[in-house]
Amino acid sequence: MSELLQNAAHLVQGTAHMPLSDIGGALTPGQVVPTPGGGTPPPGFRKLEAMLSWMAWIVFGLCVAGVLIVAGRMAIKHQSGQGGAHASSLVWVLTACILAASASLLVTGILSVQE
C-alpha cells in the first residue's frame, strides 16, 4: 500500500510543472468538447423507434386498464367491507405507471439527443 502511495506521489510531483494541455490529453481553451451522441443512427433505428412507441402505447393502456380494474374491484368489494384489501393492488398498479412514465421520459430524452 505504501508503494502505491509513493508511486502516486511521484506522478503528482512529475506533472506539477507541466502545462495543463499536456496532462492526460486535456483540452486547450480553443478546443471543442466532442459529443459522443452525435452522428447518424444505425440501420433499422426507425423500426426500433416505432416498436418502442407501440410498446409505450400498449403499456400505458394496460396501466389505465389496471387502475380501472382495481377501482372496480374496490367498488364491488366495498359493500362487503373489503374495499381496503385492494389498496396494495392499487399501489402496485400505480408503481407500474410510474415505471412506465419514467421509461418513456428516458427514451424521449435519448431520442431528442439523437436528432
Detailed description of the structure:
- With 115 residues, this protein is mostly helical.
- It is built from 3 helices and no strands.
- It has helices at residues 2-15, 45-78, 87-114.
- Helix 2 runs antiparallel to helix 3.
- The model has no long low-confidence stretch (mean pLDDT 74).
Distance between the termini: 48 Å
Which runs of at least 5 residues are low in confidence (pLDDT < 50)? none
Query: Would you count the extended β strands for me?
Result: 0
Strand proportion:
under 5%
Q: Please give the count of helices.
A: 3
Helix content: 55-70%
Structural class assignment: mainly alpha
Radius of gyration: 27 Å
Q: Kindly report the average pLDDT value.
A: 74
Shape: elongated
> Mind summarizing the main beta sheet?
none
**SSE topology string:** HHH
